[in-house]
């Protein structure tokens, strides 16, 4: 429940206790003044430009702005970030905002500048904070580094349930990231077909969390999709080294080995997957059957007697 | 950059593309492979199950279940039989509950949790408490 009359700023004020500076401003975040209703494209252009791309709000408008709504919906912002090869990472909560800015990451924030029953939604980019004078600094509207009192910022931001998004190059992990959260955001790149970016993201994840199964499987899947079977094999063997009980890793390894013509090894891997079992046993069994048929160890469907014979 | 004129309105176009992207498998060659999505969902489901079990194991929850005539071990077994998606959704509901203490909010949260467990087990056909849940004859 959000009590709009008494704003609890302790989440922000506790920052110095956790070793963060009492104030921090990111000087180098590009500023694009927004055109009418175009705060979404402007905000996204700013963080994408900071992340190393040369973009303008105009170029983003078609993918981000919805004319009938006179605004940009959050999924469109996330999708557009991914299509530019950037991790779209959503903040878990307001306490993350200060940490991320302190780590040098600008954050797109969604505010309701109006009222609950008459909302005026607005995207701005948080580029700094000053806990001593209790202010947030935002690239907002047509003002760069606009100082907004922390209480007011908190109230307007609370109405969007503290929605905040960073657009990061895949080699950069958010300061507040969890392993699951980061890997899921990398998967967003894989799903969007941004395979090179996804590769970099999964490698970054495995660097920090070497035993993360989803990242290991994801890395191999992307190599496989790119046709680099040797690299897929190497990734899966590394994954097995960290997670020896993973049927999924052995199953996928079997497929990758098979596609490289390494039949006997593929058979062993598929058998191991089946032995490990688990809820995907039927998938592993299918892989094993296909390999056995391919090696002539089982009658193929052509040889099997047909009904009625 | 070439501009492309759309016949459809931009919103419908966006939605249409989004629907296609979501429903299409990325690469049909991966039919035999376990997808990344699958592993991520399993991971989330495992965490969800751990959370639900943790809450179920609490003395006050156990007491509330017994008061309703439910064997807590049975409740745990039924929760174990939830699908991945059901477990994730159930855990999300549980996480929304207030954290503890003797406040009114907590007592309400407790009642909600017990209600949810019973509702789930009713739907799965293991209990028969709510008349509005349709039972197979």
How would you describe what is shown here?
The complex is a heterodimer of chains A (309) and B (137). Chain A is α+β, with helices and mostly antiparallel strands. Chain A has 13 helices and 7 strands. Chain A has 2 domains: 159 residues, Cathepsin B, Chain A (Alpha-Beta Complex); 102 residues, Alpha Horseshoe (Serine Threonine Protein Phosphatase 5, Tetratricopeptide repeat). In chain A, strands 1, 2, 3, 4, 5, 6 and 7 form a 7-stranded antiparallel beta sheet that branches. In chain B, helix 2 packs antiparallel against helix 4, helix 2 packs across helix 5 and helix 3 crosses helix 6. Chain B has a domain of 87 residues. At the A-B interface, helix 4, helix 7, helix 9, helix 11 and helix 13 of A face helix 1 and helix 2 of B.
Q: Topology of this structure?
A:
The complex is a heterodimer of chains A (309) and B (137).
Chain A: H1 10-13, E1 23-25, H2 39-50, H3 57-64, H4 74-83, E2 87-90, H5 95-102, E3 107-112, E4 121-130, E5 135-140, E6 143-149, H6 150-158, E7 164-168, H7 179-191, H8 195-208, H9 213-225, H10 229-242, H11 247-259, H12 263-276, H13 281-294
Antiparallel strand pairs in A: 1-4, 2-7, 3-4, 3-7, 4-5, 5-6
Helix pairs in contact in A: 2-3, 7-8, 8-9, 9-10, 9-11, 10-11, 11-12, 11-13, 12-13
Chain B: H1 10-23, H2 36-56, H3 59-67, H4 72-80, H5 84-95, H6 104-123
